[in-house]
Amino acid sequence: MIIKRLCLYISVLLVAMATQAHAASLTDTRPLTLGFMPYLNAELLIEKYTPLATYLSEKLEREVHVTVAKNYAEHIRLAGEDKIDIAFLGGSTYVTIGEKYGLKPLLARYEFEGTPTFRSVIFVDKNSPYKNLTDLVGKRVAFGNANSTLSTQVPVYMLLQAGVGLGDLGQYRHLRNHSNVILGVEFGDFDAGAVAEEVFRENADKNIRPLAYSPDLSTHVFATRSTMNPELRKKIATALLDLQQTPRGLAILKNIGETLTGFVPVSDRDYDLHRDILRQVIPLLEP
C-alpha cells in the first residue's frame, strides 16, 4: 500500500513538473540563437542572415540572434548538446549529429530555383588544361573543412566514384571555408577546389570553371534543439515556410543567396544519400 501511494505521488509530481516546464517554455522571453558553422566568413554570414533573424524576431515576438561557431566541430557539439535553439546544418552535419546525439527536430530545408536539392562543384582555373576528375591525379586540390558536406565529403565521394583516391592526389589541404577554397584556386595555390554550387555561382565573375558536379543532394536544413516546446517549433517552421509569400520575404531570401527561392518541408529520409556517402568517405577523412 505504501509503495502504491509513493508511486502515485511520484506520478502526480512528474505531471506537475512537466506542466510547469511547458508553461515556462511558452512564457520564456530569452533571445533565441540562430547558429551557423563558419562555412563562410563570420562577418558575411551575419550580414546574410541578420534580416532573417529580424523577421523571425517579429513573428515570434522574441529576439533571435545570429551566432557563428569558431569551427565545425564546435557547431556540431553545440547543436548536439542542444545549446543552439535553431541550428543551420548541412546534410552530412545533420546525419553526424543524429548518429552521435540523436536526431534533432527538423524545421525546413532550403529550396534553390524551385528545387530542394543542390550539388557540389569541383572546379579549376579557366585556363586549366584539365577536363576530367582523373586529370587530378598527382595535382593539388583544396577542400573546405573536413566536416563540410559540400566542400569535402561529397567531393571526396565524387573522386572515389571516378577512381581517384586521396592518396592519388599530389597534395590536398582542408581550408577554413568555401571562400578560401575559391581564393586558393584563383591565386594558383591549388590546381582544383571543391565548394557548394551556390558559392561557385556567387563567384562566377572569378577566373574559374566547373570540372564536375555531384549528384543532386537534399539541401541545407534548419533544426531545433530537442528540448524546444513543440508549439514554438511549429511557429518557427511556419514562419520559415511562409517567407516566400511576401516581397519582404523574397528580399530576405535573396540576401541569403541569389538562387534561394524559399524554405520547404523536410523529413529525415531526405538525407539517406548523405548517410551512404558518409559511410564511404568518413573512414578516409579520419586522422
Give a quick summary of the entry:
The chain is of the alpha/beta class and 287 residues long. Helix content is 45%, strand content 21%.
Outline the structure in words:
- With about 290 residues, the protein is α/β, with parallel strands linked by helices.
- The protein is built from ten helices and 13 strands.
- The chain has helices at about 1-25, 40-60, 70-80, 90-100, 150-160, 180-185, 195-200, 230-240, 245-255, 270-285, and strands spanning about 30-35, 65-70, 85-90, 105-110, 115-120, 120-125, 140-145, 170-175, 190-195, 210-215, 215-220, 220-225, 260-265.
- The strands form three sheets. Strands 2-1-3-12-4-13 form a six-stranded mixed β-sheet.
- α5 links the parallel β7 (about 140-145) and β8.
- α2 packs antiparallel against α9 (about 245-255).
- The longest helix is centred in the N-terminal third of the chain and has 26 residues, at about 1-25.
- The termini are far apart.
Major sheet strand order: 2-1-3-12-4-13
- Overall geometry comes to globular
Oligomer: single chain
Q: How would you characterize the largest beta sheet?
A: 6 strands, mixed
- The SS-based structural class is alpha/beta
Specify the number of helices: 10
DSSP summary, beta strand count? 13
What's the overall average pLDDT, rounded?
A: 91
Distance between the termini: 59 Å
Radius of gyration: 22 Å
Helix-residue proportion = 40-55%
